[in-house]
């Protein structure tokens, strides 16, 4: 009970410090402003994140070719493509369908494409991960999500869409920051920062237990590991990494 009261008190203190952002949100100014500025923030953050997580990403994507179609071609759909920071880790000749709900990422995406000519983009869709109706059922070999499931409105609906667009035997690759361990200091601070973090960073949740959504989704096989990412800010260190097979 004492811990809960302390969380509420400290959460209020953080919200008071972020009052200008909350005021802008209340006036309807913050959200459109955030949509325009967030891609710039992510373009910087993605470079730093890739430097610190490059070994983990290479390890995670090392068997992508195992899920290529019988012809040897690999069609990959990335949800929340953002700046295209994963392109460098994809195999040569990989065909990509990019999706993101924020069209302001486009110029950063174009830059990544120019820097990674080994991949081919079939098309770019402005669409939330919960609604991929423009992508036919059972049409892709792999779906990828990195640092996306923290900010979707309905993880359950995303899982349904992932399973729908994947062909039988296809795989869903994920690398996501998640809630810390129960009773840990990390989770304690996540719970304090979470409401303000959601407001400031385009709907991103610090304390989501995303592994539960993956376990309940109905994949035939799930390879999931909990890791502590080598990041400077403790509340974002807990991660899950792995892939699930339809």
TrEMBL record:
InterPro entries: Methyltransf_11, SAM-dependent_MTases_sf, Thiol_S-MT. It comes from the Eukaryota. Residues 77-174 form the Methyltransferase type domain. CDD domains: AdoMet_MTases (cd02440). One of its GO terms (molecular function) is S-adenosylmethionine-dependent methyltransferase activity. This is Methyltransferase-like protein 7A. The gene is LOC114587161.
